[in-house]
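Quick one: examine the sequence and fold tokens given here and explain what the tokens say about the fold. Here goes:
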Amino acid sequence: MRQCFSALKYLHENKISHRYVKKILITVRDIKPENFLLKNKDDISNIKLIDFGLSKDFSEAEIMQTPSGSPYYIAPEVFQQKYDNKCDMWSMGVVLYIMLSGKVPFPGECNKEIIENVMKGEYHYQHDSFKNVSEEAKDLISKLLLKDPVKRLSAEDAYNHPWIQKSEVDTQIVGAEVIDNMNVFVNSMKLKKTTLTYLATPSTKADSR
């Protein structure tokens, strides 16, 4: 998470886009776990942020108006079509919640239900997997998943949070149930994507009628 926040801090503060030479300030707008990859397969110490297909230049217009991203991770203000780079920080809160529990904070059986739950902004730490999560970690999540983007932590604030900047690695153990929860979530997403792809693909068979 320290590296993830460092990447966003770099993007938000140094006005660099991976696509253009000119200096612009961007928001990624599609933060999710699968967009953080290991640079080298056997080295967990070097993480890279990828996939800037939905990134946006807001150096001239601070407020963006096009909803983009994956429903589970989208900030409430994005659905209201009036947001800035703080939407990335909400997404990071969702990512951290998932990393520590294997659950999503705003679940739903369909996109409509997910969006409704995101707009409510209500979540909890009652999952068994949160029993071993420190109060500092929960504090960081709580300061990222604030509906008011003005009160939400910036990338720099999150990077400097005590839990992120601990001099020693947190020794709390991620329980086996967290991995199990993640596998269930990932498999459900794969099934959803496969189903949508199938439904969106025109049939090549001749009409037998």
Summary: The beta strands are 26-27, 36-40, 43-49, 56-57. The domain at 2-191 is CATH 1.10.510.10 (Transferase(Phosphotransferase); domain 1). Helices lie at 2-14, 76-79, 86-101, 111-120, 135-144, 155-159, 176-200.
